[in-house]
Specification:
alpha/beta, 7 strands
């Protein structure tokens, strides 16, 4: 019994996606089709050439190859994910002539040595409670340049009963399999407002269930 308890306790504290890295992309497509993919692809046209980018929670790294299709060279990318198994998959991606630094760590534990022009946080903030979200958002924001661009996509509350049911199931699944701390969507929009970002463009997918936003600081 004690061994079982300690194992479950470890999973709760782990708070990453090691356990499901091998089938995460297939799981996403089986539930949402291409909606999560398209929500992220929508953001990539906003990446200027010859810029520095921090990607937080990028998962298996397929997005690196899509970025490379647009910018085969000239980008400096820091790719952060807490899951070592997700990172192992990401390191196999084609990055062209871009420079990519891979860091396996919670973002709030990363010691940055520079500031970035672009932040990309795809389906990342929904893992956290509001108090944790505020701290993590502020930490990323502190390492962006004055006129930085923040590319964001995630789920949002719509009032739709089906959407609400899917969210509940998702949170139960990811809390059990990945130890995420959240049980419901945090107030992400308030972070952008508090840190003085303005919306440049926005698009929704899956009847409003997923939202992608391009924000500019200042």
């Amino acid at each position: 019994m004690s061994g079982t308890v300690s194992f479950l306790y470890y999973i709760v504290l782990k708070n990453n996606y090691d356990n499901i890295a091998w089938f995460y992309d297939r799981l996403s497509r089986s539930i949402f089709g291409n909606a999560q993919i398209n929500a992220q692809l929508y953001l990539l046209h906003a990446i200027p050439p010859h810029t520095s980018i921090v990607i937080v929670g990028g998962g298996t790294g397929w997005i690196l190859e899509e970025i490379t299709r647009i910018h085969p060279s000239g980008l400096t990318i820091t790719y952060i994910d807490a899951s070592s198994k997700m990172m192992a998959l990401a390191k196999k991606r084609n990055i062209g002539e871009n420079k990519v630094t891979f860091i396996v760590s919670p973002v709030e534990e990363v010691v940055f040595d520079s500031k970035y022009d672009v932040a990309l946080t795809p389906f990342f903030f929904d893992n956290f409670k509001d108090d944790s979200l505020q701290k993590i958002f502020a930490y990323i924001d502190a390492h962006l340049s004055n006129k930085s661009i923040w590319l964001y996509c995630d789920f949002q509350n719509t009032g739709n009963l089906w959407h609400g049911a899917v969210l509940k199931i998702m949170y139960v699944f990811f809390r059990l399999s990945c130890g995420i701390e959240a049980a419901h969507l945090p107030d992400i929009e308030s972070c952008f407002i508090r840190h003085h970002y303005r919306s440049l463009a926005q698009k929704t997918f899956l009847k409003g269930f997923i939202v992608s936003g391009i924000y500019e600081r200042g």
